[in-house]
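It is worth pausing here to work through a concrete case rather than discussing structure prediction in the abstract. The textbook approach is simple: state the sequence, then state the predicted structure, then interpret. We follow exactly that order.
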Amino acid sequence: MLLGVPPTLPALHRGLGLSYSAAGLLTAMPVLILALGAIPGAYLVNRVGARRAVTYGLAILTLGTALRGALSLPLTLFFFTALLALGIAISQPAMPALVEVWFPRQIARASAIYTNGLLAGEVIAATITLPFLLGALHLGWQAGLSFWAIPAAGCLGLWLLIVPRLGQTGTAPPFGNWLPNVRSWDMWRIGLLMGGTSLVYFGMNSWIPDTLEVRGGHHLIALSLGLLNFMQLPVSAALAVAGDSLLGRRWPYVFAGLLSLLGVSGYLAGPLDLAPICAGLMGAASSLVFIMNLGLPAVLAPGEVPRFSGFMFTVGYGCAFFGPALGGFAWDLTGRSAFAVLPMGIAALSIVALGASLPQMRSAAGGVSSKVV
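Step two, the predicted structure:
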């Protein structure tokens, strides 16, 4: 739903007279909403349960998606785009909690499988909106944006029909306080790991076009962006098979951080033609950390998964929103495009350090790794 917006921007410029700054706000605002809505999402899970929280989130997502193109007004476009992002935001802390309950012995595998769904949705929306919905079907930007309410409503219907009620599992964890404990190092570690990998992924998506353009690599922009996003898919598929054996271990984070650092270094200092390969390395590494991090709350804080997840998504999407802007300020200040990518290098180093600092894990009887204390 969110990635269906960028392909419609030329039509929005023509139809609504949307300025470039307004277009930038339209694409960046949902990321900020995802950050701001995650902790309220944890509160909702605490109040009504994880299954109902997802139900409410899907309903809000469907409503916002259907109405964002209903009127040819910038105000309604922005309002309902924010509403659909809020629906996603309040659902996200519930998913790790449901995984902990329904798949306690296969947390990483289940996380990878639903991440595959997220990635597939991103790819489909970004791929078919312009050539198919706006092109072949001539829907126009309003119908092209509202079209995505159809699959959203379908997902809501299937969720209500198929997904078992949390209370019927007999293993629902006693979710406690929803407010983040800002004095908890484990909570900050999970949040900063998600922030680091989000900054690498969203930051490179933001700056690949401009940085390649000034280096004379316009012909490499599409391929670099394509590999950055595509390389998440094989990693996610591999973790759906082998992820449970990696959950809670240090070395996947250290490896992913080093891989991201190699990608950033090669992108900045290597030959221009290596840019797509370096982008692909960063995409693969960010996917590895993202998926493994989804399972960490259940490992480090069983019974507090919504609380930890809400804080994790808040920090992660907060870094994704503010990090690329810091890179832009650094570019403006120094006049060097390389400084726009510098925050991603710092984020890669932070992933290495934070991953290496994870507590030792041991296999627990329930199939979930736990800290050795």
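Step three, interpretation. Residues 107-136 form the longest helix (30 residues). The two ends are 43 Å apart (CA to CA).
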